[in-house]
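Appendix C reproduces, verbatim, an entry submitted by the partner laboratory led by Prof. M.T., so that reviewers can inspect both the input and the predicted structure.
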Amino acid sequence: MLKKKITPQEVAIVKKDFETSRNVVIVCHTSPDGDAIGSSLGLYEYMKRKGKQVTVIVPNYFPDFLHWMKDADKIVRFDWQKTASYTALKMADLICCLDFNDMRRIDDLGVAVMRMRCKRLLIDHHLDPNRQQFGHIISHPEMSSTSELLFRLLDAMGELNSLTFAGAEDIYAGMATDTGFFSFNSNDPDIFLIISELLRRGIDKDKINRNIQNNYSPDRLRLIGYVLYEKLQVFPELHASLFAIKKEELTQFHYLKGDMEGIVNMPLQIKGHKLSICLREDTERPLIRVSTRSVDDFPCNEFCTEFFNGGGHKNAAGGTLECTMEEAIDIAMKGLETWHDRLADVPSKEEDKKDAKEATTMESVTGIEDDKKEDKSEETKEK
């Protein structure tokens, strides 16, 4: 039995939006990841099952390792298929916005969406949604992924029977990729109850994991080796690392979108590591894409907000910089310097006070012991 996190008011909103809509468009963020595609196709499957006319539009290319999903070939790319995109948007009476919290996250597609006069429903798990841009907002940052949120919505609406096998695969893929295959942000026991339910519907989680993780080219492995051997800078005293890779270096390894997936997590395998930073020059636009990962209580979302015009989740966040790679590295180094006390093993003020108090106590005890020894020595001399 899942804990009830979706309120009755939210259920009523979503039910009404779904029931009163005939033509539905689903959009997700730029450079879609597993959760964006998984939740979008999962909702697509549900809407098709309910007899809706549905189109999924993404701002740009999504990684090859997600193309195995059913109906991934039906996804419309806004950057390449403008006519088809605008046709679907103009016909829509509901636009479902998944896995992003601000129209700026979907670039030019966001401008097009904002021009439409139909209903806009946000379903997302990122912090601080822009409440002026959406008619209805279902936002739960405490959840591991938008795919988890979608499953909970279907469950709360009593619609799990309408979840198809392909939809179950989509939701599992989204949850798995947004938690590093359940290695972070996944301590809620409900997550594994959801996985159990998806398994009961016949999904092969091992096969899905292989489809995502073992679907790369030899060049991807060579790129990983190059990054870890040639580019990785480790700062042991800060328990942090940084690597920066330029467009020409990516070209050298015949880079395809998705080839950098997961590399930012690898430095966290270093014992005691707290923060990993990846700076990557975009292959299409003049900007630097930033990815960060952290462990335990280090808030890399706050770190990204302060230095990289970004944000995200506590242990997985990112941002962008419109500057040269050299300037981006300088900004990252400034960030590490600014957050030195949060990263390094620096004792807190309370610990300093405690140590000082203990030292004073020890000095007092030692002084008393010394006085006793002197008194005893004097007694011995007198005798």
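The CA atoms of residues 154 and 161 lie 9 Å apart. Additional entries are available on request from the coordinating office.
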